[in-house]
Structures are given as C-alpha cells and as structure tokens.
Amino acid sequence: MKPTNLTNFKVPTFGNVNFDSLELRNGRIERFVSADTNAVNIDCGSYTLLPGFIDVHNHGAVGVDVNTATVDDLLKVSAFLATKGVTAWLPTLVPDGDDVYERVIDAINEAMRRQDALPVAQIVGVHYEGVFASEAMCGALRPKFFRSGQWVVDGGQLPKLDHGVHMTTLAPEIDGGIDVVELLVADGWVVSIGHTKADTETLERAFAAGARHLTHFFNAMTPIHHREIGVAGWGISREGVTFDIIADGIHVAPEMVLHACRSRGTDSVSLISDSVAPTGLGDGEFELWDEKVSVVKGRTQNERGSIAGSVCTMADEVKLMHELGFSHAEIAAMASTNPATLLRLKDRGSIKAGNRADIVLVDDEMNVISVFVGGQIV
C-alpha cells in the first residue's frame, strides 16, 4: 500500500526543519520527506499542522453521559470529538455506585477493542473524578457516593481497565487521603488534586507522595488570598506542579485564564473540556446525575445553582486561547503535548517520526479544518 504524504502545510514549532511533505504509513508518522510521486499526496492548503488534541477530562457529549454509557454510546462520543480535533480522550466518571463503575469499565474495555480501525478519538483510559473528594468543595458532584481514604487503605479498589491510563482526582485532606495518593501512585495511577480545600502543608505531603497535578484550576479549590495562598496560589507558585484548566470563558474568566497560564508557563498547563452530555445539543433542559441541568447561552447550571461541567469542546478552547494571544506552538503544548506527558503517552502529543499519525489542520484563526486519527482522515 502506498504511503500518504501530507504536502503544503506549516508547522508552528519543532525547529527549522526543511521538508516538503510528511509521510504517514501504517497509522504512524514515518518521516519528513521531499515530495514523492510514489505516494498518495494530500494538499493541506497551507494550513498549520498540530498534534491531535488530548482531552483528559470529559464526561460525555451529544446526549451521552459516561456514567450511563454503552459501548456504542462511547464510540458515538468518540466520533463527535474527532470532528473537534480530539484524537485521544479519557472518559470521566463522576462518583457513583460500584455497579455503575463495573458496567462502565466493561463498556470502555469493549470500546477500546473496537476503536482501533475507526477514525474516531481514541479512548486511552479512564478518569475517576471526585470519588475521594471534599464535601465542602463538591461542586456538581454527589457527596452520597464519596468514599474515605480509609476505604482504600482497608483494601477497597476501584474497577480497572484491562489496559490503559488510570487517573483520579481527589482531595488529599480527607481521612486517609495521603495514604490513597501513595497507594494509587505505587499502582501506576495518575493522581490529580481537586475538589479540595487542603492547606499548604497537606498539599506538600500530597506532592511528596506523587500528586503533582491540579484538576480544573481555580474551580472547586480554595482561591488566592493575600493572607492565605490557597490551593490556587500553591498551584501557580509551587515548582513542579502542573494543572489543567477549562478555557471556556465561563468556568474561569478569560483574563484569569491568561494570567494563570502565563504565570505558571504554558509548558505546565493542559486544556480540558470538562464536557458533559448536553455538549453539541445547544441550549435546553437536561437530566444529568439525578437532577435537572439547564444550559443557557453555553452555561450549565444544576438545581443547586452550581455549574455542572461545560458544553465546550477542545476546538472551542483553542480558539479562545488564540484570541487571548497564545501562539499556535503554545496552544499545541497545552492541547496536546502536555496532556500526553501527564498521561505518559509516549507516542502522542507531538508531530515527530514514530508517533501516531494523530494530526489536526487549523487555519490562522485556529478553526479546525481537517483531522487525522491514526493516519485516517475524519
């Protein structure tokens, strides 16, 4: 089979490399080459090539909630996300019962078995958000399903996938919280701090135990105060900490997104959607997590008055980041490279030989033009 060569494009970073085309073969980036007539050549119209976006925090879209999803539902979300530039994602569970976890993990396992040959965003693992959260910072989560850290210390285990990334967001100040961090990190989990009001001493203990990332920065954590640094202040100032942020202009004011990302540095920030089931369906009233959620002008609100996730996509977020003045290269880092590093995905997140051919073509205004997943055009 002839290779596919992408021609006539721009690359925003990766050094001063002279090449006419990018050769894709067997789903991977083979090499940068000169134009080759013995290949299927695709003219990219002088658009910019970026690595495919990676969304590490996504509860669903197009009417599908991860907590209730079937295999077909998950693949439906994957197909939608691919049209928005996402080439890899973590289905994200909110706190629920053991039977729900077990059923959804089975569905994710089967979806991962089916997805390889499909031009859809690839599921690369699972994210349990808030099973070990602080009730004082529960946000839209349901405290009745929260667990103490002692549950893990006593041998309790969350269902795991056959293979893939396992991530969790937790509050280290809960009973046994630091023990949970140590046990999960030792088991290979990516442990992120969130839904928390931990003090600096507890945050430092969690950091030492291996939790060095913060979930949806500024949201469901204590803010910066001039006499108390708060979780947010610690996240910006503590060397070695990274964070993800919902750049929808609603969860965090655009000016604060700009300030936080510039202060921490774009090499330490990941964009996340925190997308929920109504994403892609427009405004309206929806049932989500046992309560009514309204979407008005792109803002979600549950019956308790809390924001209940977002209805934005990664494509929406990269456009906002562009409007805030971030370069294509900086946006590629925050939407692709940094999430890949966080999840330890060694063959994704950048455009280089040997990596998966997960590629997004964008115009100068950061509109998604075309998407390749494993070398297949969406």
Account of the protein in words:
It is a single chain. The chain contains nine helices and 22 strands. Strands 6, 9, 10, 11, 12, 13, 14, 15 and 16 form a nine-stranded parallel β-sheet that branches. The protein starts with a strand and ends with a strand. The mean pLDDT is 94. The chain has helices at residues 71-83, 98-114, 149-153, 177-186, 200-209, 230-237, 254-264, 314-323, 328-343; strands at 4-7, 21-25, 28-33, 40-43, 48-51, 53-58, 60-61, 64-65, 86-93, 122-123, 125-132, 165-170, 190-193, 213-214, 242-246, 269-272, 284-288, 291-296, 299-302, 359-362, 368-373, 376-377. It is of the alpha/beta class. It has a single domain, classed as TIM Barrel.
Q: What key attributes describe this structure?
A:
9 helices; nine-stranded parallel beta sheet; TIM Barrel; single chain; 26% strand; four-stranded mixed beta sheet; 378 residues; alpha/beta
Could you estimate the helical fraction of the residues in percent?
Answer: 25-40%
CATH class: Alpha Beta
* β-strand number: 22
Mean pLDDT: 94
Rg over alpha carbons: 20 Å
Q: What's the structural domain tally?
A: 1
| Dominant shape | globular
Structural class: alpha/beta
Per CATH, the superfamily is Metal-dependent hydrolases
Percentage of residues in strands? 25-35%
Q: How far is it from the N-terminal to the C-terminal residue, by CA?
A: 20 Å
Number of helices: 9
Largest sheet: 9 strands, parallel
- Could you say what the CATH architecture is? Alpha-Beta Barrel
CATH topology: TIM Barrel
Unreliable residue stretches: none
